[in-house]
Design a protein that fits this description.
Number of domains: 2
Largest sheet: 5 strands, mixed
Strand order of the largest sheet: 1-2-8-5-6
Number of strands: 8
Length: 216
Protein backbone atom coordinates (compact mmCIF):
# COMPACT_ATOMS: atom_id res chain seq x y z
CA UNK A 1 0.00 0.00 0.00
CA UNK A 2 2.77 2.44 0.88
CA UNK A 3 4.51 1.73 -2.41
CA UNK A 4 1.38 2.61 -4.37
CA UNK A 5 0.96 5.82 -2.37
CA UNK A 6 4.48 6.87 -3.35
CA UNK A 7 3.75 6.08 -7.02
CA UNK A 8 0.51 8.06 -6.91
CA UNK A 9 2.31 11.01 -5.29
CA UNK A 10 4.93 10.97 -8.06
CA UNK A 11 2.35 10.61 -10.85
CA UNK A 12 0.40 13.57 -9.50
CA UNK A 13 3.34 15.67 -8.37
CA UNK A 14 5.45 15.65 -11.54
CA UNK A 15 2.67 16.82 -13.88
CA UNK A 16 1.63 19.34 -11.23
CA UNK A 17 5.12 20.83 -11.08
CA UNK A 18 5.31 20.95 -14.89
CA UNK A 19 1.91 22.67 -15.17
CA UNK A 20 2.89 25.12 -12.42
CA UNK A 21 6.13 26.08 -14.19
CA UNK A 22 4.47 26.34 -17.62
CA UNK A 23 1.71 28.43 -16.17
CA UNK A 24 4.20 30.89 -14.72
CA UNK A 25 6.28 31.03 -17.91
CA UNK A 26 3.32 31.29 -20.29
CA UNK A 27 1.45 33.48 -17.84
CA UNK A 28 -1.56 31.20 -17.90
CA UNK A 29 -3.28 31.45 -14.54
CA UNK A 30 -5.38 28.30 -14.93
CA UNK A 31 -2.32 26.16 -15.57
CA UNK A 32 -0.28 27.25 -12.56
CA UNK A 33 -3.38 27.03 -10.31
CA UNK A 34 -4.05 23.44 -11.43
CA UNK A 35 -0.35 22.70 -11.12
CA UNK A 36 -0.24 24.15 -7.61
CA UNK A 37 -3.24 22.06 -6.52
CA UNK A 38 -1.78 18.88 -8.00
CA UNK A 39 1.61 19.56 -6.36
CA UNK A 40 -0.05 20.26 -2.98
CA UNK A 41 -2.07 17.01 -3.17
CA UNK A 42 1.09 15.09 -4.12
CA UNK A 43 2.91 16.57 -1.11
CA UNK A 44 0.05 15.57 1.20
CA UNK A 45 0.08 12.02 -0.14
CA UNK A 46 3.87 11.87 0.22
CA UNK A 47 3.79 13.15 3.82
CA UNK A 48 0.97 10.72 4.66
CA UNK A 49 3.06 7.87 3.23
CA UNK A 50 6.04 8.85 5.39
CA UNK A 51 3.87 8.97 8.54
CA UNK A 52 2.47 5.51 7.78
CA UNK A 53 5.98 4.17 7.18
CA UNK A 54 7.26 5.54 10.48
CA UNK A 55 4.25 4.24 12.40
CA UNK A 56 4.45 0.77 10.87
CA UNK A 57 8.19 0.60 11.56
CA UNK A 58 7.65 1.63 15.18
CA UNK A 59 4.95 -1.02 15.62
CA UNK A 60 7.19 -3.64 14.04
CA UNK A 61 10.15 -2.88 16.29
CA UNK A 62 7.93 -2.65 19.37
CA UNK A 63 6.30 -6.00 18.60
CA UNK A 64 9.69 -7.56 17.91
CA UNK A 65 11.06 -6.17 21.17
CA UNK A 66 8.08 -7.48 23.16
CA UNK A 67 8.44 -10.92 21.58
CA UNK A 68 12.16 -11.03 22.37
CA UNK A 69 11.56 -9.77 25.89
CA UNK A 70 8.85 -12.37 26.45
CA UNK A 71 11.10 -15.10 25.01
CA UNK A 72 14.08 -14.30 27.20
CA UNK A 73 11.85 -13.64 30.20
CA UNK A 74 10.28 -17.08 29.81
CA UNK A 75 13.72 -18.64 29.39
CA UNK A 76 14.90 -16.90 32.57
CA UNK A 77 11.77 -18.00 34.47
CA UNK A 78 12.29 -21.61 33.34
CA UNK A 79 15.97 -21.40 34.27
CA UNK A 80 15.11 -19.90 37.65
CA UNK A 81 12.42 -22.53 38.32
CA UNK A 82 14.77 -25.35 37.33
CA UNK A 83 17.50 -24.03 39.60
CA UNK A 84 15.08 -23.47 42.45
CA UNK A 85 13.79 -27.03 42.01
CA UNK A 86 17.37 -28.29 41.97
CA UNK A 87 18.19 -26.33 45.13
CA UNK A 88 15.04 -27.64 46.82
CA UNK A 89 15.97 -31.20 45.87
CA UNK A 90 19.50 -30.72 47.17
CA UNK A 91 18.17 -29.19 50.38
CA UNK A 92 15.70 -32.05 50.72
CA UNK A 93 18.52 -34.57 50.23
CA UNK A 94 20.54 -32.86 52.94
CA UNK A 95 17.54 -32.99 55.25
CA UNK A 96 17.03 -36.67 54.52
CA UNK A 97 20.66 -37.28 55.42
CA UNK A 98 20.13 -35.49 58.72
CA UNK A 99 16.93 -37.23 59.75
CA UNK A 100 16.79 -40.76 61.07
CA UNK A 101 15.13 -43.56 59.12
CA UNK A 102 11.86 -43.25 61.05
CA UNK A 103 9.28 -40.87 59.67
CA UNK A 104 9.04 -38.84 62.87
CA UNK A 105 5.85 -37.88 64.59
CA UNK A 106 3.31 -35.09 64.29
CA UNK A 107 1.16 -33.47 66.92
CA UNK A 108 -0.27 -30.26 68.30
CA UNK A 109 1.50 -27.82 70.58
CA UNK A 110 0.16 -24.78 72.38
CA UNK A 111 2.31 -22.04 73.87
CA UNK A 112 1.66 -18.80 75.69
CA UNK A 113 -0.03 -17.46 72.54
CA UNK A 114 -2.79 -20.02 73.35
CA UNK A 115 -3.04 -21.19 69.71
CA UNK A 116 -2.94 -24.79 68.52
CA UNK A 117 -0.12 -25.44 66.05
CA UNK A 118 0.53 -28.70 64.19
CA UNK A 119 4.25 -29.55 64.03
CA UNK A 120 6.44 -32.45 62.93
CA UNK A 121 9.31 -33.69 65.11
CA UNK A 122 12.14 -35.98 64.06
CA UNK A 123 15.32 -37.39 65.57
CA UNK A 124 18.59 -36.91 63.72
CA UNK A 125 20.54 -39.99 62.66
CA UNK A 126 23.36 -39.60 65.19
CA UNK A 127 20.98 -39.54 68.14
CA UNK A 128 18.86 -42.35 66.69
CA UNK A 129 21.99 -44.50 66.37
CA UNK A 130 22.42 -44.12 70.14
CA UNK A 131 18.98 -45.58 70.74
CA UNK A 132 17.00 -42.38 71.37
CA UNK A 133 13.78 -41.95 69.38
CA UNK A 134 10.57 -39.96 69.82
CA UNK A 135 7.43 -41.87 70.75
CA UNK A 136 4.95 -39.00 70.64
CA UNK A 137 4.25 -35.37 71.41
CA UNK A 138 2.64 -35.38 74.85
CA UNK A 139 -0.57 -33.51 75.56
CA UNK A 140 0.09 -29.97 76.68
CA UNK A 141 -0.74 -29.17 80.32
CA UNK A 142 -1.24 -26.02 82.34
CA UNK A 143 2.43 -26.21 83.32
CA UNK A 144 3.42 -26.55 79.68
CA UNK A 145 1.41 -23.49 78.73
CA UNK A 146 2.96 -21.55 81.57
CA UNK A 147 6.48 -22.41 80.46
CA UNK A 148 5.91 -22.24 76.70
CA UNK A 149 7.18 -25.80 76.41
CA UNK A 150 7.02 -28.76 74.02
CA UNK A 151 6.56 -32.10 75.86
CA UNK A 152 7.98 -35.21 74.16
CA UNK A 153 7.90 -38.86 75.18
CA UNK A 154 11.17 -40.60 74.27
CA UNK A 155 12.00 -44.27 73.72
CA UNK A 156 15.40 -45.73 74.59
CA UNK A 157 16.87 -48.90 73.16
CA UNK A 158 20.30 -48.12 74.68
CA UNK A 159 21.57 -46.38 77.81
CA UNK A 160 22.04 -42.67 77.31
CA UNK A 161 23.76 -39.94 79.29
CA UNK A 162 24.29 -36.53 77.78
CA UNK A 163 22.64 -33.39 76.47
CA UNK A 164 19.90 -33.29 73.85
CA UNK A 165 18.66 -30.25 71.97
CA UNK A 166 15.28 -29.62 70.38
CA UNK A 167 15.59 -27.02 67.62
CA UNK A 168 12.48 -25.37 66.17
CA UNK A 169 12.30 -24.23 62.54
CA UNK A 170 9.87 -22.18 60.50
CA UNK A 171 8.30 -23.21 57.19
CA UNK A 172 11.18 -21.59 55.26
CA UNK A 173 13.75 -23.66 57.25
CA UNK A 174 14.83 -20.71 59.39
CA UNK A 175 15.89 -21.62 62.92
CA UNK A 176 13.52 -20.01 65.42
CA UNK A 177 14.89 -21.19 68.76
CA UNK A 178 16.43 -24.16 70.55
CA UNK A 179 16.24 -25.74 73.98
CA UNK A 180 18.92 -28.01 75.48
CA UNK A 181 18.43 -30.29 78.50
CA UNK A 182 20.56 -32.88 80.31
CA UNK A 183 19.16 -36.36 79.79
CA UNK A 184 20.22 -39.54 81.51
CA UNK A 185 18.29 -42.81 81.29
CA UNK A 186 18.78 -46.54 80.97
CA UNK A 187 17.60 -48.86 78.21
CA UNK A 188 13.82 -49.26 78.24
CA UNK A 189 13.34 -46.39 80.67
CA UNK A 190 10.98 -44.32 78.52
CA UNK A 191 10.55 -40.79 79.80
CA UNK A 192 8.60 -37.66 79.00
CA UNK A 193 10.67 -34.50 78.75
CA UNK A 194 9.52 -30.94 78.42
CA UNK A 195 11.61 -28.60 76.28
CA UNK A 196 11.00 -25.10 77.58
CA UNK A 197 11.38 -22.24 75.10
CA UNK A 198 11.61 -18.55 75.82
CA UNK A 199 8.21 -16.90 76.13
CA UNK A 200 9.01 -14.56 73.24
CA UNK A 201 8.98 -17.60 70.90
CA UNK A 202 5.70 -17.70 68.98
CA UNK A 203 4.71 -21.35 68.60
CA UNK A 204 2.50 -20.43 65.65
CA UNK A 205 5.70 -19.80 63.64
CA UNK A 206 7.03 -23.33 64.25
CA UNK A 207 6.67 -25.81 61.37
CA UNK A 208 8.95 -28.65 62.50
CA UNK A 209 11.56 -29.56 65.12
CA UNK A 210 14.71 -31.69 65.09
CA UNK A 211 15.99 -33.52 68.16
CA UNK A 212 19.80 -33.79 68.24
CA UNK A 213 22.57 -34.62 70.68
CA UNK A 214 24.45 -31.62 71.97
CA UNK A 215 28.22 -32.05 72.31
CA UNK A 216 28.74 -28.78 74.13
Amino acid sequence: MLFFLFIIAILIGLPGIILFILGLVQKKQIQWIIGSVMTFVAILIFVFSIVLTVRNSANFFRKNFNNNHSYYSNKYDRYSDENNDRENIEESDKTKETFSDDKGISGFIKGVDNKLTLIHVKTDQQLADKGVTIDKIEDYTSQTLKRNGIPLKLNLTENFNGKITLTAYSADNTEISACTIIYSATKGDDQSLEFDFDKIVNFSDIKYCILTESIQ
